[in-house]
Amino acid sequence: MNPQSPYTSDLEILSRLCSEDFIPDGNLDKTVWRNAIPIMFNHDWMNERHYPECSTQVAAAWSPSHFYFAFWCRYTELNIYAGEDPVPQRFGLWNRDVAEVFLNPFPERQNHYFEFEVAPNNQWVDLEVDLEREPTFDHTWDSNFLHATRIDPEARIWTCEMKTPAASLGISAIRPGWECRGNFYRCDGPGDDTQRRFLAWSPTFCTNPSDYFHVPARFGTIRFE
Asked: For every one of its 225 residues, what pLDDT tens digit does the chain have, with 9 covering 90 and above?
């Protein structure tokens, strides 16, 4: 780790080049995901408690024009906004089960990044985040990201694919050898926040319950092969 870097996480995930762009459908049997190198986590944001029952795998891929992410999410009981229309954006989605990607394509601007959330029933929200701005979260920003989920109730796994246009993040084209910063999270389980599980790939060690995940200094590195 560079001692002068403002980032304190040395975790890395490799994003592999797709042979062609595709539309997410939640099926993670695709060649792109079979060839990926997923990371796995089941610990909370403090790296203190482990939850094998909601173990999570994430894989990353890319094309020159898009970021792709896949999640394999174990669960014991789904906690969703049942009966709601999954088409419009659902603000407050983090109060139910979600898989989350925080992505910073410009690591020199540590406090400015983008948040993508998808629930097991394919409800979604995307946000532009700037910790130096008020309001901090811009829910009017629209990335036009695509997403799809599938639920396997027998295996108790739900899967998710996300596809985000690079242009919506201000990137003209993704190139091999490039790297950016990001983190992956899960909110899981019923009950209030004292009962639910909050998992983080790169632990944030945040003691403020309103900001468990929003610690950009703890973002890991995404490398584009």
From this structure: 566 789 999 999 999 999 999 999 999 999 999 999 999 999 999 999 999 999 999 999 999 999 999 999 999 999 999 999 999 999 999 999 999 999 999 999 999 999 999 999 999 999 999 999 999 999 999 999 999 999 999 999 999 999 999 999 999 999 999 999 999 999 999 999 999 999 999 999 999 877 899 999 999 999 999
Say if residues 94 and 116 touch (Cβ distance below 8 Å). no
Kindly list the domain boundaries of the chain, sorted by start residue. 12-81+89-133+141-184+200-224
CATH topology of domain 12-81+89-133+141-184+200-224: Immunoglobulin-like (2.60.40)
| Strand residue runs (E) in 51-111 | 56-63, 66-74, 98-104
Q: Which two tokens stand for residue 108?
A: 């020199």
52's CB contacts (< 8 A; 6+ apart) are: 42, 74
15: Cβ contacts below 8 Å, ≥ 6 apart: 60, 61, 62, 67, 68, 222, 223, 224, 225
